[in-house]
Amino acid sequence: MKIRQIIDKIDENQLFVPAFQREYVWKRNDAKNLVSSLIKDYPTGTMLTWETNTPPELKGTYKYEITKGAVKLILDGQQRITTLYLLMTGNIPPYYTEKEIENDIRGLYVNVETLELEYYKIKTMENNPLWVNITDILQGKIIGTDIKYQLEDRNNGERIDRDREILISSNINAIKKIEDRDFLEQVIPVKASIKEAIDIFYIVNASGVNLTEAELALAQISGYWPQARVIFKKKLGELEQQGFVFKLDILVYALLAVLHKMGSKMDKLHSADNKEKLIAAWEKLDSTVLDYVCNLLKSQAYVDHTDEINSIFSVIPIIAYVYNKPNNKLNEEEIKKIIKWFYYSQIRNRYVSQTTQKLDKDLGIINENPNPFDILLIAINEERPLEIKPSEFIGRDIRHPLFALMKWYFKSKGAVCLGTGLSLRKNMGKKYSLERDHIFAYSVLRDSGIYDMANQNDYAIAQEITNRAILTSIENREKSAKFADVYLKKVKEEFPNALKLQCIPEDETLWKVENYEKFLKERRALLADELNKFLNNISLTNETASTHVDLMDMIQSGEHGFLEFKSTMRWNWKENRLDKKMEDIILKTISAFNNGEGGKLIIGVTDEGELLGLESDYSTFKESNKDHFELHLRNIVNNMFGKDFATTHLTVKFPIINEVEICEIDIKAGDTPLYCNLSDKNGQIVKKFYVRSGNTSQEFDIQETASYISKRFK
Prior knowledge:
- By secondary structure, the protein is an alpha+beta fold.
- It folds into four domains: about 5-180, no CATH class; about 235-385, no CATH class; about 390-535, no CATH class; about 560-710, Methyltransferase, Cobalt-precorrin-4 Transmethylase, Domain 2.
- The strands form seven sheets. It has a four-stranded mixed sheet. The chain has a four-stranded mixed sheet with strand order 10-13-17-14. A three-stranded antiparallel sheet has the order 5-4-6.
- A hairpin with a 2-residue loop joins strand 19 and strand 20 (about 695-700).
- Helix 11 packs across helix 13 (about 315-325) and helix 12 crosses helix 13.
- The longest helix has 26 residues, at about 275-300.
- It is globular and about 75 Å long.
- The relative contact order is 0.06.
């Protein structure tokens, strides 16, 4: 089937994707590779379809009715087909919602002279006719002569040579021919049942790397319980807000563990005979067990985010144990044993290899013994001694699980950031903000003449985890490359207990760069001793501490009633051009915060918290800098709301985060209401009144405005 026919059949409701398929997960590089292969006429895989009168639930809004006859489903190849649909139409296919497109791969540009593929870069592509949005080519909006004339205009009428003109036209034609490429189609017989179709889907994927065993099992589950994927993802979203970022795989393993008491043989979940028991098990996991286990790890093991966990599979035996307990609650002694086992499962890499076999063994112990975590700890000890030796730190970098244990131990002691004195314990939310920095700065060691960073051993010593301290992100950005003796002396003066709480030797002679290796030796011994004591005497202290939240923390926590992100002030990213209409959105947001309880507007950050910076906005001014940006911002605010408001109710700053400059605008709650004079659909200027509600700016009608003003502005 030709690619153009596939796209047409999707638009004409003749080709669908079943609900059990996963979301669109391809990344931009995958899209570039696919398009490159198509242009070069390389093989690009096949498509597996199934035409049936008894389809499973379909993705999207289309509802199947038996009177409509057979429908054709895409069982394999939907990631490639979705990529092509996005690039050829510029739209999201009807079987997906915007939320299910994890990575928007639209906006791919091609250099029509070199066929280089890249996503938009203002410095490279602005005013360069050779760089063209590939969607415009595929939709027939661009032809070779267009590029020729644009190049000649840019070169003051100088004609381009014939060979170059032919090359550009030839390349554009090669791109346009993508829609005529054939996608080899493999077809499942019409007579196949849902179970048989998914079995074939399983076989097609089993030898590849596209889907895991758990994902394939989830496809089978979704065949007999169509809502499963949506329900599971909702739970993942809830857990993510607490810092526990799991994949769907973990939920499938949890179901296998509580239903079949094993970690292997995912095919046990394939049969529809599981349905009633599986739904009942999920209700229990969803309502109590998963939240209880995550809260247990957070409050008793000091795990603030799954980024700290070396092997996430360690949660499966804990989930199974809690699931089996009456009322799904544990006593103090049980909690101690679980936490101790959890720590050792991490530092002794319990599930790094032979994961499913070890889960089988451990889940068997969970279900057969009244005190299983004593036995599970013995199982770890049989593989590796539990005691931590100082030599285990030598050359180990931050990827080693001992580093996570160091963090948990520091937090258990109430350790603080060396530079700010703030507690390392905080509610991280869905993103993680604690950072790790060298005590002896890498550049200082490199420039000392003692260490050659081209030497593998010297480099490993410089990066060793015993040369790391845990800092808040604001301190890490401000610390810079100070000499250790200077930095640590200041820490000792300002926060006398900070060094001890992070097991940093307090002998000042060890802080000299020439004594660096003596410092490491001392700290290795200190850490080994302290960590062994900690593991042998697990603390159950559950103290909470208030923490300072810096700007990056705020961005990572996401938008809310007092915080709004905007990608730009007046650059239209979708159309890659200056668009002064974008300024109305900024003014609308400012007025909404004024009319509400105040708030903060950050420009240069996407809705998802990605730092874009202000480069695109800066490029729209004669001089590309923040001074012209701020001047223009204040001018449009002055013109809309008056100079008095701009000077008394608005604070504008330009912080730099991770080398990216953004604009931070603080808006005070106003004393008087603000209206925006904006154009309606007929081009007439009308007064509009906005108020912040949740994480959006809501427009009020005349009656709502009058009522609100009478209550808010007395």
